[in-house]
Amino acid sequence: MRYQISGKQIDVGEALQTHVKAELGEVVEKYAQRPTEAVIVFSRKGYESYCDTVLHLSTGLTAHATGHAADIYAAFESCREKLDKQLRRYKRRLRSHYIDRTAPVEFAGGSAYILAASEEPEDVEPDTLQPVVIAEMEARVPSITVGEAVMQLELAGERLLVFRNEGHGGVNVVYRRDDGNIGWIDPRNSK
Known about the structure:
Blueprint: E1 2-7, H1 14-31, E2 35-45, E3 48-57, E4 62-69, H2 72-89, H3 91-100, E5 106-115, E6 133-144, H4 146-156, E7 160-165, E8 171-176, E9 182-185
Parallel strand pairs: 1-2, 6-7
Antiparallel strand pairs: 2-3, 3-4, 5-6, 7-8, 8-9
């Protein structure tokens, strides 16, 4: 497994890196047999330390957890416990997908754009309706089933996930609704 341990405006020493690798490795080995990468970022706001961890699994799932405490080690432990709880909660679902999926998830490339916010007052009509692109990035779109997409949405704690449906190859969206339920948009079924 590849670890990327860094700090925002703080020094992450060798002892902390060793501790993170040992503790996170134990959690990952316990619940997810094929991890690929863990990205751990430590930061500080005022007197509190924060730990933000993103764990990528070969099944295409991404688990995300954040912890904070007065001590940097305690912040990591809080984050590790949340990650442990997430993986334990989804262990059965992860295992069933692990058995069904023989190959790692494939990712297709896509373009992601950041558009400039309108500087015009709302009551003034803009000169042109073309938005101004201020940044263009590469986006990764996983090719997974709807069940895996919902699991990914819940594990990552995101509000929206765009994916390529393995069933028919079309682009789909799952999203968290304001009422707490999960919505699924499948343009193929809109005929």
